[in-house]
Design a protein that fits this description.
CATH superfamily of the largest domain: Type I PLP-dependent aspartate aminotransferase-like (Major domain)
CATH class of the largest domain: Alpha Beta
Order of helices and strands: HHEHHEHEHEEHEHEEHEHHHEEHEEEH
Number of helices: 14
CATH topology of the largest domain: Aspartate Aminotransferase, domain 2
Strand content: 15-25%
Radius of gyration: 21 Å
Distance between the termini: 25 Å
Shape: globular
Bound molecules: 4'-deoxy-4'-aminopyridoxal-5'-phosphate, glutamine
Number of strands: 14
């Protein structure tokens, strides 16, 4: 692991909240995604680890950003976001989900979904509050709950379908729960929650007066049933913060334009934190993402169909190479069990995969709390948001594993 070494006095180590995120030796461990991308670069392996597309988003959106820069949209935008983007987010929620969201008070533009998550969690929990997530979970959830002083409770998602046991969900939510964080479609498993699970989450949030935070960055990447935002369920909107981002929908992960929608009072509380995080970001990219959100329905259907094809190519390749796979219903990740190939330690397999097959993946254990890693040890995640040719090449190379 190649951490950036930080020299720390003992006092700083005791007082910095972030110290909880440092390794024993005081170094900053890179995220699993950064670590695996660096490994891919070093070994010239095909990078199916960190989830980022290898093609840029729609030409119209790219052109709109160039135009905005030329037109001088280069200074601080308004704190809540540029009106043109706030309006486009509101129209998007209405067009796809029938949600009526007031652009002036119920929407906030953020530096990616990550800042939306950070500001929401920091604004809505007090130290000692419990936050429920599903597990495996996107790594930022654990870090941010820790930064907010919260206590992280998890509900396991188990192979092969990675759906939660509803009694385990009932048991995890109590009157100590402040937030229930949902990620649907789910990273890293590709699971999509059925209506009954979403309904139970709303019921529990009501019973225990919790707020639902739903991370829907893969909202347009489902392969079958259309995405159901939990905020559309009866009684949900009033206690739900819905988060998304332009990164996945427009293949523009580096632009870091995200947003959230929620009732006005909740948005205001989150804005109070957000203004001291980034304040604002991405002035010329905001009107460009607005252009993207107004693209015709065919664009959104097209990206789902395209991603489904890529999923199928990689799924076939992984199975032919001897992995057991769980077929994802959404997102752009697929979980593969390496046990049939004789590997029970996914982290070790991921370290050796460049040398064995010229491919990089990430271990599912990196999405788990230390206490639960063992259960997921043999699982690895592959990203398929890549050109079909590259996925075919990776599949051919992975066949070497069954001969290893
Ligand atoms: N949530 C999930 C589930 C993700 O997979 C990601 C990363 N792609 C993010 C949030 C972060 O999104 P952004 O890059 O917009 O901050
Ligand atoms: N969300 C991306 C993934 O899961 C990576 C984001 C990051 O590098 N932090 O691969």
């Amino acid at each position: 692991m190649t951490g950036n070494s930080v020299t720390m006095s003992g006092a700083w180590r005791r007082t910095a909240r972030g110290a909880g995120l440092l390794a024993e030796d005081g170094s900053v461990a890179p995220s699993i995604f950064a670590e695996m991308s660096a490994l891919a670069l070093r070994t010239n392996a095909i990078n199916l680890g960190q989830g980022f597309p290898d093609e840029d988003g729609p030409a119209l959106v790219l052109e709109a950003a160039r135009r905005a820069i030329s037109d001088g949209v280069n200074q601080y935008p308004p704190g809540r976001g540029q009106p043109v983007l706030l309006d486009a987010i509101s129209r998007h929620q209405q067009r796809f989900y029938g949600l009526t969201v007031d652009p002036g008070s119920e929407v906030l533009v953020t530096a990616g979904a990550t800042e939306a998550l950070a500001a929401t969690i920091l604004a809505l929990i007090e130290p000692g509050d419990e936050v429920v997530t599903f597990e495996p979970f996107y790594d930022a959830y654990g870090g941010l709950i820790g930064l907010g002083g919260g206590i992280h409770r998890t509900v396991p998602l188990r192979a092969p379908d990675f759906q939660p046991d509803l009694d385990a969900l009932r048991a995890a939510v109590t009157d100590r729960t402040r937030l229930i964080i949902v990620n649907d479609p789910h990273n890293p498993t590709g699971a999509v929650f059925p209506l009954a699970t979403l309904e139970l989450i709303v019921e529990l949030a009501h019973r225990y007066d919790a707020i639902i935070v739903t991370d829907e960055v893969y909202e347009h990447l489902t392969f079958g049933a259309p995405h159901i935002p939990i905020a559309t369920l009866p009684g949900a909107w009033e206690r739900t913060v819905t988060i998304s981002s332009g990164g996945k929908t427009f293949s523009l992960t580096g632009w870091k334009v995200g947003w959230l929608s929620a009732p006005a009072a909740i948005v205001t509380a989150i804005l109070a934190v957000k203004q001291f995080l980034t304040y604002v970001n991405a002035a010329p990219f905001q009107p460009a993402i607005a252009v993207g959100l107004d693209l015709p329905d065919a664009y959104f259907a097209g990206i789902a169909a395209d991603m489904q094809r890529k999923r199928d190519v990689l799924a076939t390749g992984l199975q032919a190479s001897g992995f057991d796979i769980s077929m994802p219903q959404g997102s752009y990740f697929i979980v593969a069990d390496a046990t049939p190939l004789g590997f029970t330690d996914g982290a070790e397999l991921c370290r050796r995969l460049p040398e064995l097959a010229g491919v990089v993946a990430v271990p599912i254990a990196a999405f788990c709390s230390p206490a639960h890693r063992a259960e997921y040890a043999a699982l690895v995640r592959f990203a398929y948001c890549k050109k079909v040719k590259l996925l075919e090449q990776a599949s051919t190379q992975l066949e070497a594993l069954s001969r290893a």
